[in-house]
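hey m, so remember when u said the tokens were messed up on ur end? i reran from scratch. heres the input so u can diff it against urs
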Amino acid sequence: MSKETDASKKDTQSTSLGKMLTILDMFTPETPVHPTTEIIARLGTSRSTAYRYIQNLNDSGLLQAVGNGNYILGPRIIELDYQIRNCDPMHIAADGVLDQLADDTGESALLCMLYSNSVLCVRESHSKPRSSKLFSRGQSRSLFRGAMSKVILPYLPYHQLRKMYARSEDVIEQANLGTDWSEFKRTLNDIRKSGCIVTSGEFYPDVTGVAAPVFNGSDLIVGSVGVAGPTHELLTEGLEDTKELVKTAAGIITERLHAEVLPPRAVG
């Protein structure tokens, strides 16, 4: 996770509600069950406050007790996921578009959202069985790695990019985005001119991504759309066609979002 994302999360965690919701971040595929003692230790609050937070989350269905003082994520999250699939403007704007993009390219198509100084995958479509190496719905990544992230950067407000660079200079250099502020700006300008970006091996050696930006009705950047798949399939003579298909998909989603005033969900 980038320093930028860490900073925004710390701001959220400074409130009582933020502290309570950090409990949900503890649950991962590697550690899906947590005892009360671990949750209390993680919160760093008094036992009475921690118990109150846990009880509130349990009562709301965001946590579920499974016996012996252990908890898992609750069923309310499944309900909320269903609701957002049917209510979120970005998710709805991609109806049919991702399926067509996956069919046309023969690769996995992804829709991502700019969220709290990171990029969050919100929808996916696959032309073949999904690889475990690919980005999938609900996963978030740094804004500095991968096509779906990097294509967003050129369209962020200047002051936000300045803050990002100051906080994440080393990460930006490691991501081959620039060794200083001037080179960083030039790199982003080149991405903007091309209208899309291709990256290879930034998460897995044999995976390539192609992505283009998505904008809202105020022409503000809100996310990206693209495809990902085996490098030996994407880096071929058909790459230029794939780039055009991705840009066309991004244009359709953007046109549909022009009916919505969907604010960017990044935190500066």
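this time it looks ok to me. The first helix runs from residue 3 to 13. if urs says something different then somethings off w ur setup not the seq
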